[in-house]
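Here is one chain, start to finish.
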Amino acid sequence: MTASHLSLEEGTMSGSPADDILRLVFSFRRLAHGPADGDCAAGTCEECYALHRPKVERFIEQGVPLHFVIPAFPAKSPNPQKVLGTLPDMAERISLEFLQELCDYTRHYYEPGARITICSDGHVFSDLVGVPDETVRAYGTELEAVLAAIGADAINTYGLEDAFPGFPYEEQRSMLTSHYAVPVEEVRARTLADPGARDIFGGIHRFLFEDRMALSTGRSRNSVREETKSLAYQVIQRSDAWSHLVEDFFPEALRLSIHPQVSHSPKIGIHMMRTRDNWLTPWHGVALDDGEGIRLVKRHEAERMGATLVMRGGRVSHYIAPNVSASVKPLIEEVAS
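Its structure:
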């Protein structure tokens, strides 16, 4: 598969179709390692399977495709040190191809396969992260075009405007929080008490701080850090509200996440591309061809190594690492007779 070149031989394991499918998904897990992870910090345990097996088995009993939901693909980060622009590029394309291939690969274990609903959360917190709603809408329109271009017929999208149609985005956000959000004070208390929630807060806060610092001039790091700390609690509040809405609208679906999750979470954190950063996502980075495949890095990291910018269709697409041609393997390899 695109994300890690998984072969069918690697994915073929004896067991029930439900466990084989979960084993496939778990092979791309984005884990938040913590004290509670214990024996499954480096793999999986029976409890990991038991949390999700009933949902998989229900789909199999009904003879219909498995249904995954993943809140993801909100909009590009506003930080030019991380991304190439405001529209989807090769990073999104590779990630969408991975999700489609994940659905395809499930057919090896269960013929109806799977489908994925991308629950785009761009409008959920666009005002908090400094991305205009018009930019979010343009990103979503181009994302649909990419899905069509790659023939991703197992993927559909769902957004805030689908949940609350006919209302301005600001009213949609108000309706989301009034129906599904808990008070920010409760989010703050949970963050202080729960190591998993604290890890999520740390990742969100880091993203916000990096983006706001890149766009701020004449401000101290401490003042920006304090501002983004408050924003992080609000982003988590709305993100949790969106998660609750998605669970309400799609109660039978298996829940994927682009954030690292502890092993025994009701959500399965998942990587869609090779990366060395457990928190990096396609909308916070760029695609880099390093000669062994395409991995996700931040724009400034690609430029620091002297990578070459590639254009596709008259638009910025991705980077190629320097001297990559020296490490490329031939397409046909001679074998000893």
